[in-house]
Design brief:
The complex is a heterodimer.
Chain A: E1 30-34, H1 61-73, E2 78-82, H2 92-102, E3 105-110, H3 117-126, E4 130-135, H4 140-147, H5 152-165, E5 170-176, H6 184-193, E6 198-203, H7 208-212, H8 214-217, H9 221-240, E7 246-250, E8 270-273, E9 279-280, H10 300-306, H11 308-311, H12 329-332, H13 337-344, H14 360-372, H15 385-393
Parallel strand pairs in A: 1-2, 1-8, 2-3, 3-4, 4-5, 5-6, 6-7
Antiparallel strand pairs in A: 8-9
Chain B: E1 12-13, E2 18-22, E3 27-32, E4 35-38, H1 41-47, H2 56-66, H3 74-86, E5 90-91
Antiparallel strand pairs in B: 1-5, 2-3, 3-4
The chains are: A alpha/beta, B alpha+beta.
Protein name (chain B): PqqA binding protein
Function (chain B): Functions as a PqqA binding protein and presents PqqA to PqqE, in the pyrroloquinoline quinone (PQQ) biosynthetic pathway.
Subunit structure (chain B): Monomer. Interacts with PqqE.
Chain lengths: 394, 92
């Protein structure tokens, strides 16, 4: 799900995919607008590309509104405003209003830093449907350490209360990892106290900055089992008490034996547009050795229906063994191509999370390392401009 | 249980959900944070009448009139409303 990596590094000689004809695909129901890479926080598991500092100019207000209109025409119904920190965009209220008018369900995915009651009311007026606030931990010290900011936690608490006070549905998102997953009971208690409607307890996915920090992030199997047990226990108790809060627990695929059906299939449901207008079938895909189109050069319909990169992993023509003859290939579509590329060097390989993959030992090795690593937050590579420029230069 | 919904109950859409017609899918849908439920024909027709003002009896009467050839559909409607309540889509 998460985004990462350096763009196409000039690899060539790839098989030329079918060009200009349509392969079976659904509608882009989910449009994710990554409005900007600017962000006041520095989370070491950010899904933005490592080299975001080298990205091109941001799309204008009019360009975004045009993308939203085209997406809606094609059946898109969920629109996520993301980033970076989308609040950095001064035209956010105009973008919300435009999207709302088109009939989208609009989601603001924010750190809460830079938000205040007046902005929230203006967004509501513009038609914003929902606000998701991400937290780094359940207490100020760990939260602020991970966010790379001294005041972030208090601000997040205040904004979460304001979201509820203004009558928005609220999703709280906690990215969990070895530094905070043992506090999952306190995380859940905090969410209950803040009256969250949905809570995403999402273990890190190891792409982008998180991949750079895998060793300091990946929890042990025991930590994960404990967290899941605690979550299940809370689910039962909260349901019995009539609390409608929904706890969504996302396990890291590093502890699975079969890969996730990534994005419900490549180019099937999900369309991301990055700050500079690059269209992607998932947030991470930019790291792959494929050329991705820009919304400034093609219509969204041309891109979705016929762009070679959007067609590339549709169907199963691209598959090699063990995927090709696998009876589960229609369920997981071979898993995540970015993970295959990062861990095996070939995006056509099965996702190494799969125990049938010849590269599965790499996942097993990462799990074993998690058992012996000492927590050392000073070893985090933080997501900031300075570190990104190093990656942008390559 | 679904059968226990009284006919004078006034169902209301849970504020977490937005209900709308989606032309691209030719279906009514329920939208919620980052998600969507595509409703089948009957479910959509019923929820389209859930407005926080009509009671169950009025909803039944209106649908019975609209689908006069369908026979007695009151039990189906009550059962669906019970299911919708269990799913937290509506409050009663």
């Amino acid at each position: 799900m998460r985004k990462t990596g350096s763009p196409c590094s000039g690899q060539s000689g790839l098989p030329n995919p079918a060009f200009g004809h349509e392969k079976p695909h659904g509608k882009p129901l989910w449009l994710l607008a990554e409005l900007t890479y600017k962000c006041p926080l520095q989370c070491p598991y950010c899904s933005n590309p490592l080299d975001f500092a080298g990205a091109g100019a941001e799309l204008t207000t009019q360009q975004w509104l045009d993308v939203f209109a085209q997406g809606r025409e094609m059946g898109a119904v969920q629109l996520g405003f993301s980033g970076g920190e989308p609040l950095v965009r001064q035209d956010l209220a105009d973008l919300i209003a435009g999207a709302h008018e088109l009939g989208y369900y609009t989601n603001l995915i924010t750190s809460g830093v830079g938000l205040n009651a007046a902005k929230m009311a203006a967004f509501k007026q513009a038609g914003l449907d929902h606000i998701q606030i991400s937290f780094q931990a359940s207490d100020a010290d760990v939260n602020n350490m991970l966010a790379g900011s001294k005041k972030a936690f208090e601000q997040k608490l205040a904004m979460a209360r304001e979201v509820k006070a203004q009558g928005y549905p609220m999703v709280l998102n906690f990215v969990t990892h070895r530094h905070n997953i043992d506090q999952i009971d306190r995380i859940i208690e905090l969410c209950v106290a803040l009256e969250a409607d949905y809570v995403e307890l999402a273990t890190c996915q190891y792409y982008g900055w998180a991949y750079e920090n895998t060793e300091q992030l990946l929890p042990t199997q025991a930590q994960l089992a404990h967290a899941e047990a605690v979550t299940n226990d809370y689910r039962e108790r909260l349901a019995a008490a009539g609390n409608p809060i929904k706890l969504i627990f996302v396990t890291p695929d590093y502890y699975e034996e079969r890969p996730k059906g990534c994005m419900n299939g490549w180019g099937q449901v999900f369309l991301t547009v990055t700050p500079d207008g690059t269209a992607l079938p998932c947030h991470s895909a930019r790291m792959l050795p494929l050329e991705f189109p820009n919304v400034a050069d093609s219509t969204l319909k041309e891109i979705w229906d016929a762009n070679p990169s959007f067609n590339y992993f549709r169907g199963d023509d691209w598959m090699q063994e063990p995927c090709r003859s696998c009876d589960e290939k229609d369920k997981d579509f071979g898993g995540c191509h970015c993970q295959a590329y990062m861990l095996t060097g070939d995006m056509h390989n099965a996702d190494p999370v799969c125990s049938k993959s010849a590269h599965h030992h790499k996942i097993v090795t990462a799990r074993e390392r998690a058992e012996t690593v000492t927590n050392a937050p000073d070893q985090f590579v933080y997501r900031n401009e300075r570190n990104s420029r190093v990656f942008a230069k390559g | 249980m679904s059968n226990s919904i009284a006919l004078h109950t006034v169902p209301k859409l849970n504020r977490l959900f937005r209900f709308q017609w989606e032309q691209a899918q030719e279906a009514y849908v329920l939208l919620y944070p980052e998600g969507m439920i595509q409703l089948n024909g009957p479910a959509g027709e019923i929820l389209a009448l859930v407005d926080g003002e009509r009671d169950v009896q009025q909803i039944i009467a209106q649908l019975q009139q609209k689908f006069a050839d369908a026979g007695d559909i009151s039990q189906d409607i009550v059962e669906f409303l019970g299911e919708a309540h269990a799913q937290n889509w509506i409050t009663l």
